[in-house]
User: Fold this.
Amino acid sequence: MTVKPRGAPARMAWKLLAIALFALFVSLGNWQVRRLHWKRQLIHDVAARVHAPPVPPPGVTQWAAADRGRWQYLHVRLHGRFLHDAQTLVHGTSELGYGYWMLAPLRLDDGSIVLVNRGYIPADLPGTPAFAQTRAPSGEVDITGLLRTSEPGGGFMHANRPAQNRWYSRDVPAIAAARGLPSARVAPYFVDADAAPGNARSEAPWPRGGLTVIRFPNHHLSYLITWYLLALGVVIAAGYMARDEWRLRRFRPSLR
Assistant:
C-alpha cells in the first residue's frame, strides 16, 4: 500500500491542532507554576501564623482588609462574653468524622462581636441529654484560636437554608442576620478555637476545638511537569509528522 503525502487542508489541520494543543498544555503548565508559588507561600504563611503567639484580632477599622483574607489563620486572642441562645450548628467534617461545628457569638470589650467556632461535635449528639453540656460558658472568657474568613453561599453540595436553620458553611453575615445580630458590629471573620487548656470550655468532651486543617496537599509540581511533558510530546509528534511528510514529498516530487 502506497502512502501518499497529505493534501494542503490536512496539513493545515494538523498544524493548527498541534499549535492549539501546545499552547493549551504550556498555559496549563504556567498556571500550575503560579499555583505552586501560591501554595508554597500559603504553607509558609500558615506555619508562621499558627505557631506565633496570639495577638489581638483585627479591629473594626481593619475589617475591610481582613475580609480579603489578609489575616487568614492568624493566631488571635479574644476576651469577652458569649451571647447565649444564639449558637449555630454548621454541618461539617473533621478528622473525627462527620458532625457539626458549633458557632457562638462572642461580644468583645469594645462591643464588637466575633463568631467563635467552639469546635466539633458528633452528628448524633444534638437531641441527647449530653448536648446540654455543650452550652457556651457564662461570664468573661479568654479564647485563643485561628482567624478564618467567612465562607459565603453554602457547602460544596448544599446551600445554606437559614429559614430551616440548616447551615452547611460558616457564612458569617448570613448567620449574624439569622441570629438578629447587628451587622455593623459583627466581624467579617470567625475564629476557630484552639484546643489549649487555657480556653474557656466546660468539662464535657464536646465541643472539641483545635481541629482546623492546617496541612495543605501540594501536588502542583507534578502537575506542571505533566503539562510541560505533554507540550513537549506535541512538539515531538509534530516533528515526526513533519519529517514523514518531508520524506514522502522528497521521494514523490510530482505530488508537491
User: Anything to note?
Assistant: The chain has four helices and six strands. The first strand starts at residue 75 and ends at 82. The two ends are 20 Å apart (CA to CA). Helices lie at 8-50, 63-67, 172-178, 220-251.
